[in-house]
Design goal:
By secondary structure, the chain is of the alpha+beta class. It contains four helices and six strands.
């Protein structure tokens, strides 16, 4: 992925445009904003993520765990921040138009709250692994590329289907689900994707 005139394309999950054809399109943003995640203060961001920010990627257990941890923290932060932005207006709309048109709002709020609690429990276990320096406790798959990938990104997701499009879990359940961290990034020898 190359910056053009100091900009890259970014998917904005908070875009609430009424145009269904374009609201999920990527938008141009400045390169300095592309990887900004404000979930940590500068001191903790630097101290926690030094092995992935200031050292070359060598596919160590510590680096893989830290990339997964960053994806997890970003998911928690984004989920809670974005959901808080829409929760009050959604409940106000429900009060105005009634249950018939907005029957799933409270169910969605409950599901989000349960998912956030589940993610916070996972974060607690990651915190323990990091503080105990138990870096090789997570299963992972690393796919190396001979050149940098065209897309860089990270996500912490609960997949619904596998690569053969077979359902592997019900992600709309109130029960805990299985989560994975995915990251695509450049390295000194090209780049790659890893799944943890």
């Amino acid at each position: 992925m190359c910056a053009v005139d100091g900009h890259v394309f970014h998917f904005n999950t908070t875009n609430i445009s009424a145009d269904h054809n374009t609201r999920n399109w990527p938008m141009k943003i400045g390169v300095n904003d592309a990887s900004v995640f404000t979930g940590f203060c500068a001191f903790h961001d630097q101290s926690i993520f030094r092995p992935i920010e200031n050292e070359p990627f060598e596919c160590t257990g510590e680096q893989l765990l830290l990339y997964a941890y960053r994806a997890l923290c970003r998911e928690i932060y984004t989920r809670e921040f974005e959901f808080e932005m829409i929760k009050a207006p959604a409940l106000a709309l429900k009060a105005r138009v009634g249950d018939d048109l907005t029957s799933n709002i409270e169910e969605t709020i409950e599901l989000n709250n349960l998912t956030s609690a589940e993610l916070l429990n996972i974060k607690d276990s990651y915190d323990q692994l990091i503080s105990s320096k138990l870096f090789n406790k997570l299963d992972h798959l690393v796919l190396a590329c001979p050149k940098p990938p065209d897309i860089f990104g990270t996500a912490f997701i609960a997949p619904h289907k596998n690569f053969q499009y077979n359902q592997i879990q019900d992600t709309k359940t109130l029960l805990p689900v299985s989560w994975i961290a995915m990251t695509m990034l450049p390295s000194k020898n090209g780049g790659g994707m890893f799944i943890i």
